[in-house]
Design brief:
2 domains, single chain, 4-stranded antiparallel β-sheet
């Protein structure tokens, strides 16, 4: 009887650990993306969308963002951006977008970092 109870406890313990592991992994694999800013090129062909990925790291941590460049609704490239913004959420004020003939320049700015320029080419 005692070994049956021990096997049952071990089974429940393993099942509980698997559930906890799945919850932790699902949180990191399926982080929500929040659109921060969207800009369209002068020729209306290219679009850059900047998303905040997940929530800012707590407390006073960085904020993960991603810029996605698309061409006629097809993703051309992605650029990961880290804002050192004292744990605050990303806003439109954190980004300046400049379109040029064959590329887009994204400048990311935040309270705890110097401005960083990212150049993303269309091709």
């Amino acid at each position: 009887m005692s070994s049956f109870i021990n096997k049952k406890k071990i089974t429940w313990l393993v099942a509980g650990l698997i559930v906890i592991l799945l919850i932790v992994l699902s949180g990191s694999l399926f982080k929500k993306r929040t659109l921060i800013v969207k800009s369209v090129s002068d020729d209306n062909i290219h679009t850059v969308s900047i998303y905040m990925v997940g929530d800012p790291e707590f407390p006073y941590g960085s904020t993960n963002c991603q810029a996605i460049l698309s061409d006629n609704n097809k993703t051309v490239s992605r650029q990961d951006i880290i804002l050192k913004n004292d744990g605050k959420t990303a806003t439109e004020e954190n980004f300046v977008i400049m379109w040029q003939n064959d590329k887009v320049i994204i400048t990311a700015m935040a309270e705890e970092m110097e401005p960083v320029r990212y150049t993303v080419s269309f091709s």
